[in-house]
Structure formats: structure tokens, C-alpha cells
Amino acid sequence: MPGFKDELLQLGKQLQLSFEAFDAVGIHAWPSVLHKIEASFVVKTSSNTHFNWWWESFKGPQFSLFFENGQAYECLDQLIDVQEQVWFVACESGRDPSKFWLFQGRIQAIQLILREHYAFEYYLVSKKYEWLLCETDHDVLVGLKSVIPKMEALQAANRTF
Questions:
Q1: Domains in the chain: how many in total?
Q2: Domain enclosing residue 121, as ranges
Q3: How far is it, in rounded angstroms, from Cα 23 to Cα 75?
């Protein structure tokens, strides 16, 4: 039985996504990237805290949008430049909520992945660590830092989600 990471990579192949559009981050690079994401956006309560439920411990101001239909991924290309390469952190919340997988890609490819296999928690992060977006398992899209004004504008333009 393939693991979660392999499922997402296989789905990317089925969707004919290029490696530039969607790919896993190598085993040697991902620990430092996840550490930098955590240092930039998450309050660590102890040195033993593992990588789970980041959204419960975000640093600084945040903005949230609730999506009754559970499809926040549909609006991501309105918040993220389609040409920007981003970090995509996928959490195996159904199997092991402490297990995070790190990918990189462009938002439209990531939206295709999420449309086909959306029942998991994920985080999107600027490669410059300027913003973070997260869709929780409670159908809430949470944004931090420079993405907040875009989320506020999206909310003003779309009264219902």
C-alpha cells in the first residue's frame, strides 16, 4: 500500500504535472525548510513539540475565512501569484497527524492535487517566508503576514463561501 507522499506524487503524474509545477522536496532539504517555516510562523511551546497542529500555535496576527463547502482550495489562485513557486506542506491528519510531507510547486498544480485528494490538512508558504496559508480540518482557511490584505479583499468581494 503506497504511503501518503507517494499517493500525492502518483496523483501529480496522473494529472500530468511537470516537476516544476509539483514535486516532493528531497530528504536532505526538507528538515531545514520545515524548521525555517516553524521558526517564522509557529510558537514552539517546548523543544519536544513535533510538527503537528501548527495552526493552533501561529505567531502574530492572523486572518481566517470559514468555507461551508470545505473547498477553500478553490480560491487559492486568487491569493497566490500563479507564477510563484511555493512550499506545500501536507499533513497526514487521517493517518498520523504528526507526519508532514514537504512539496514545492505552483498554486494551480497544487489546486489540482487538492481537488482530487483534498481530505487532509495543508499549509502553503512563500519561499521567502513572507506569508503562510493553511486550511484546517475544520474548513477554515487561515492566513498570516502579507497574505492577510488579500484575504480581506477576497472576503469583501465574496460575502459567502
A1: 1
A2: 4-157
A3: 21
